[in-house]
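With this grant's support, we have settled on a layout for protein records. One resulting record is reproduced below.
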Amino acid sequence: MANLSVYNMEGKEVGTIDLNDSAFGVEVNEHLMHMAVVQQLANKRQGTQKAKTRGEVRGGGRKPWRQKGTGHARQGSTRSPQWTGGGVVFAPTPRSYSFKINKKEKRAALQSALTSRVLENKLIVLDELKFDEIKTKNFKAVLDNLNVSKALVVLNDNNENVVKSARNLENVATASTGTINVYDILKYNTVVLTKAAVASIEEVYA
């Protein structure tokens, strides 16, 4: 069971917390994490690319010259792929790139991602994170106190003041415990969790 320091918004240590091994101490499975990242990126793809094949390009219905006797190679249409203005040979068509991984794999991948952050000392626990007003400067001050620049900040509840204070900061993202994913956890250098968020995650994986 990992034991981490708990910091306040001023960056001072105010206690410690024991992390539950069911969420933060599993065996790291890199293959499952890779699968989860690939799935998320694939599911984000629009898949709307389209090009016309020779059958879809306008024109080309008439044979450009007779079959024999011209000295040219035989041609049946001016919309064949070798002609300027012709169709594309294997033209891309709209399709879905999404695929599924089962719930147990997705769950194990998320546990592995959280554990990897603990093992790499890239997980910070805050006692609380709340602001009385929406102010980017205040959020930046908290990150500076923690010596963090590129971070994913995970909250237990959707605190509007915190979320809106963070959205103008480059390389910083906020998420709730119900929306965290493997890609975001691995993308950012540091994961910052509130104590309430830790408790919420541990309750899910208990």
